[in-house]
Amino acid sequence: MTRSLDRMYKKMGGSAITSTPTATKKTTKAAPAVKAASSSASALKPGKRTIKLGIDRDSTFMYFIKDGAVWRVPRKRPGMPKGKKEKIRQFAEAGSLDYGSYLYYLDGAGNVVMNPRKNRRV
User: Fold this and answer.
1) How is the beta sheet containing 102-106 ordered, strand by strand?
2) 19, 86, 88, 98 from 70: Cα distances, Å
3) Which of 24, 69, 76, 101 lies deepest, with the highest CB count within 10 Å?
């Protein structure tokens, strides 16, 4: 914009406007460098497969474990109403899983996996 104003003032016979380009620029700080995960104990370890179900996953749904069953709910999309959850398969008795000590989830192959929770305050 200052270039167009400079041209306008020169055409009118005036002197050019002097401006500092650094005053108009926004300064952004660079993000701190992220350390790559090492192959030591701090790296994420895969969970222990507990039950082989082989559920076919669909990318339009989110899957979760609740009360010994696999549930799915449609992913939320902008402008769309919230979807209803549906039970896919019951694989254990309700109350038989230790949710306080382990995190249960469905892996990419459709199997139930458990990972121990760390520093869990119950």
Assistant:
1) 48-51, 112-116, 102-106
2) 64, 9, 5, 15
3) 69
H helices present in 15-60, as ranges? 21-24
Q: Report the distance separating Cα 80 and Cα 117, nearest Å.
A: 34
Is residue 62 within 8 Å of 72, Cβ to Cβ?
A: yes
105: phi then psi, degrees, rounded to nearest 5? -155, 170
Domain boundaries in the chain? 48-116
Question: What pLDDT is recorded for position 98?
Answer: 87
Of 77, 93, 76, nearest to 85 (Cα)? 76
> Residue 112 carries which DSSP code?
E
Model pTM greater than 0.85? no
Q: Residue 122 — pLDDT band, cuts 50, 70, 90?
A: low
The phi and psi torsions of 14 (rounded to 5 degrees) equal -90, 175
